[in-house]
Amino acid sequence: MARAVPQAAGLYPYVPGKPLETLLREKGLSRAIKLASNENPYGPSPKAVAAMQAIAVEVHRYPDGDANALKVKLAGFHDVSSAQVLLGNGSNEILELMIRAFAGSGDEVVFSQRGFIVYALATQAAGAKGVAVAEADGLSHDLNAMAAAVNGNTKVICIANPNNPTGTLHSNAAIQGFLDRLPRDVVVIIDEAYYEFVADELGDSVHELSHPGLVISRTFSKAYGLAGCRVGYAIADRAIVELVNRFREPFNLNLLAQHAALAALDDRDWVMARVCDTNREREMLEAALHQKGLSGGRCFGNFVLLRHKQSSEILRRLEDHGIIPRPLAPYGMAEFLRVSVGLPEENAEFLAVLEIIVSDLSDQETLTS
Predict the structure, then answer these.
(1) Which pLDDT value is given to residue 231?
(2) pLDDT at position 18, please?
(3) Phi, psi angle pair for 283, to nearest 5°
(4) Distance between CA atoms of residues 367 and 369, nearest Å
(5) Please, how many CA atoms are within 13 Å of residue 217, restricted to the half-sphere of its CB?
(6) Would the pLDDT of 60 be above 80?
(7) Which sign, positive or negative, has the C-alpha torsion 290, 296, 299, 305?
(8) Per-residue burial over 116-150, b = 16 or more CB atoms within 10 Å of its CB, e = otherwise
(9) In the chain, at which residue ranges do the beta strands (DSSP E only) sit?
(10) What pLDDT score was predicted for residue 8?
(11) End-to-end C-alpha distance for the chain, whole angstroms
(12) Residue 342 has what pLDDT?
């Protein structure tokens, strides 16, 4: 057998949330609710759907390899130069490209122990060393400890804000204080995949944060409801963008994705109305979990955290009822389940089934005590 590069040892692919089709097949069910992948249950903007339908007859042609129209529109949207915009096949590709471009053998990438798991995977794939820093209070990035972990070998730092899967948020003032402590030649990725859900609270990080190596990444997968199209982007210094573009695959943003994203940007009112719907449902879910003594803490994305010592059993029983949450054992959070915010009727069904499950588990504990 051919020998792989050293970093392939122990490397494993990212494991997404369980697909609906898989659960239906496993459980012999006819319907299910997926609350595992932080998708937008309302779907994409009607304008985005119409744009994809209109351009579908052109899929026999290659798309614009530079996706120039989308870059220009995003640049205008954020009041930056189009040379500062990098496009990716989802924000995952942005993260991987950044780490691959700036970190290799002998280099270090700093991230939170319970930050998005792709940071660790992309670091190992690049042959660099991952430095996972423990959280300050069990869930939130410890910015002081992360700054202290930076040394001469540090090339990239990754911060998710809000963080997935813990849902925690740092203010721009806190992030800027962290940036001010860093060497000027370190690349700092602020991963804002869930930005739209905290836009009013967080403010304009693109213009409020400053560092020569600053990279702000965002996605159309969450608030815009285009997870299946895979559209991500980053805003950074033009020199960083130019360098990373050398690693980007040609045509990494397909034709349908480009036109869907362009149309979605023209339907901002629709998108933000759905964000309001989601935030309202999230607050309802968090209040319900808190009342049941099951809250895993406040979240600032489009998901909530459930905490129970028998979370694996709750997971199994929820799946028996056709409800798919996300277990967080891979993050070292064995007592936690991450539950995406669904449609109101889906959230109500989740809470009703959860009530039955938790009551049954409590009765069993009483009988065995």
Answers:
(1) 98
(2) 76
(3) -65, -35
(4) 6
(5) 29
(6) yes
(7) negative
(8) bebbbbbbbbbbbbbbbbebeeebbbbbeebbebb
(9) 33-34, 85-88, 108-112, 129-133, 154-160, 187-191, 214-219, 232-236, 303-307, 323-324, 326-327, 336-340
(10) 64
(11) 55
(12) 98
Distance CA 65, CA 54 (A): 20
Crossing angle (nearest 10°) for helices 90-102 and 238-245 = 90
Sorted by where each starts, the structural domains of the chain and their CATH numbers stand as 17-43+269-368 (3.90.1150.10), 46-266 (3.40.640.10)
**Phi and psi at residue 187, in whole multiples of 5°?**
-85, 130
Confidence of residue 366 (pLDDT cuts 50, 70, 90): low
Helix or strand (DSSP H, E) at 288: helix 268-291
Average pLDDT, rounded, for the chain: 94
Residue 196 has pLDDT above 70, yes or no: yes
Cα 207 to chain centroid, rounded: 22
**Which residue shows structure tokens 């600032």?**
300
Residues whose CB is less than 8 angstroms from the CB of residue 158 and which lie 6 or more positions away in sequence, other chains included = 95, 99, 109, 110, 111, 112, 115, 116, 119, 189, 191
Can you read off the two tokens belonging to residue 279? 């935030």
Within 8 A by CB and 6+ apart from 317, the residues are 353, 357
The tokens for 30 are 């006819």
pLDDT the model gives residue 365: 67
